[in-house]
Design goal:
Elements: H1 24-54, E1 60-65, E2 68-77, E3 88-94, E4 105-108, H2 126-129, H3 138-150, H4 160-168, H5 170-184
Antiparallel strand pairs: 1-2, 2-3, 3-4
Length: 187
Amino acid sequence: MKKLLKFKSMPLIRKDGPAKEKDSNQTDIEALDRHMFMQKARTRLKKELETIAKDPFETWSIGPVADDPFHCQGTLLGPPGSPYSEGLFFLYIRFPADYPFSAPCVYFTTRIYHPNISLNGTITLELIKDNWSVGCKIPSIFVALNQLLLEPNLATAINREAENKYKTDRLQYHQMAIEWTRSYASG
């Protein structure tokens, strides 16, 4: 009978070196950093929202949902000269904990027929996708949305049907956008 050798079990060695356990102090510091970032973001958001409330804009509005400045509801009037001009569109805006270093997520909650807005409200907007900077503020978002409603950006289209209509039959595209606006965005 062969004698089995017993080996003491050894931990596997990782290619990138041994696994490192996080020091509890490091974890505490990271949590404190996140909290400080979030507090700074909350302060900035509250200040921006208060400024807007004191001097509101005619074509759009924004306010926190349940007093949480990280979750806001916005409204946007369709711009004159666009097929959306008779509409009032609602938006949901979620600001990240590291705002303004990261862009907010913006969604249309009102259905809208547009090449850059999906059927579930997702928006492909250059400002919040690629061109966000720390200097951007809430009004920047609404200015960019207004411009997008006036001039779709086909390079970043997400609604292929609307994109194809816009490219091939502009009149039919406008009629469809007007019809959707009347159906979903009129008071």
